Amino acid sequence: MNAIPELNDYTDRSLLIVEDDKPFLDRLARAMETRGFAVTACDSVSSGLAQIGRSAPAFAVVDLRLGDGNGLDVVSALKRERPDARAIVLTGYGNIATAVTAVKMGAVDYLSKPADADDVVAALLSTDTEKSEPPPNPMSADRVRWEHIQRIYEMCNRNVSETARRLNMHRRTLQRILAKRAPR
């Protein structure tokens, strides 16, 4: 297996992080700075797009769902301004369809939250010829189902009846699932 290139192999170490979770944004920005990146942090799609307009970075870490829009718009704008830029998408609402869309729009990888800084660096610097290692503890089928239900529940603004309708599930069954703790 090929070794992951080091950041020292890159002359431009500019990194844009677009994340609306302020504590996570601050932690990730500090961690990436300690790993040698020149970080610019933004908390919205509009500020991320404005930053790309001023100076397109070599790297980007973008949250998929932001308060004012979709993070894929930032990835798309970055790839238009700087085709050689390497962007990854982070999300707590991961699914195959959005992962495929992110890669089609130019993202080099797609990571589920919580991702630590080492995972982010590995994804940003990995080459296309490498195969990523499977996670050491993949989610169980029950956990995947629970995550999907939670995502739909949030999309329906925490409306149990609407969520049950969209999932084609009885409302009381859904209430019992929501009342339980997340499976491992």
Automatic annotation (TrEMBL):
The lineage of its organism: Bacteria, Pseudomonadati, Pseudomonadota, Alphaproteobacteria, Hyphomicrobiales. CDD domains: REC_RegA-like (cd17563). The keyword ATP-binding does not apply. GO terms for biological process: regulation of DNA-templated transcription. GO terms for cellular component: cytosol; protein-DNA complex. Residues 14-128 form the Response regulatory domain. It comes from Rhodopseudomonas pentothenatexigens. This is Fis family two component transcriptional regulator. The keyword Phosphoprotein applies. InterPro entries: ActR_PrrA_rreg, CheY-like_superfamily, Sig_transdc_resp-reg_receiver, WalR-like. GO terms for molecular function: phosphorelay response regulator activity; transcription cis-regulatory region binding. It comes from the Bacteria. The modification 4-aspartylphosphate is found at residue 63. Keywords: DNA-binding, Phosphoprotein, Transcription, Transcription regulation, Two-component regulatory system.
